[in-house]
Every structure is written in C-alpha cells, then in structure tokens.
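The pair is quoted verbatim as follows:
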Amino acid sequence: MKQTMISIIVCVLAVSAVAAQQQEKQPQQEQSSAAMLKQFTRSMNVDGIMMSFVYLNDRTVDVLFQPPGKYAVRAQAKMATLLYVQGTPDRDGNLDTTFYLEQDGQTTEGMARDIKGFKSGAVTKGERINGILQFDRKLDLTRQFTIKNGKNSVKFKLPEEALGTVAQ
C-alpha cells in the first residue's frame, strides 16, 4: 500500500514537472513564431482596410493553420505562390479582391480564395476578413516582388535570415 502511494506521488510529480517545462517553452516558441511571421508579412491599405499579407511556406503554414487543412495548404504552397490575407475594416465599404503579383517585369493575376469575407463586394466595419491569394507561378524569393491592388501596392524583399529558413 505504501509503495503504491509513493508510486502515485512520483508519477504526479513527474507529470507536473513535464507540464511545467512545456509551459516554459511555449512563450519562447510563441515569440520565435511571431518573429518568424514578421519576416514574411507586409501590410498595405486596400480600399480603406489595413490588410496583412503573409508569404506561405512550410514554416508560416505550420503557425497559421491547423491539421488537417494545413497539409493541403502546404502542398499548394509548394506548387504556387500563396499569400495569407487578413484585415478588419474600420468602416463600411467595398473590397476589390483583384490582386496582381509583379516580379522582374512579369505580372500574374491572383485568385482570391475566401476563408471568411475575402471576396469582392461590400464589407462591414469590424468584420474580420481572412483569405488566401494564389498566384500560379513560383517566385524567386531572393528578388523583390510586389503585390498590387488598384493603385495600392506593397513590396516584399525577404531578409537574408528569412531566406535561409525557406526551402523553395
């Protein structure tokens, strides 16, 4: 009986120690994930909506998406250029989801994939917008590229440390 109680106490202490270690690692992982996402994110004003664009690769997909959907997104990101798009309108208005990607004089029109509210038309103040822009060509990530929407644009030039983490 005494040995059983001691075994239970040892198990509880071991599980508590492992849980405490995992909780200590979690804030560090969240900080490193946030720093990594920042390297692959650019923002621009689109029709009065401040939108963020995240270049999707294996690492960013793992942070932004959950299984099983992340596996499909990761596979698509290997075949085409994908950008995760997110924003929240600060006023009612209209959104045009016609985006173009430019690199080295070549222009490619993107296809908007709606996750939540990412479609052309009316948008409501405060309603979060999420979607994916798909461009049917892979980029040379060592070179700058530009995303355009109407007269608005944002340039991507990935830092050297980000390039080292991306397998094309």
About this structure: The chain has two domains: 1-39, 41-163. The first strand starts at residue 41 and ends at 46.
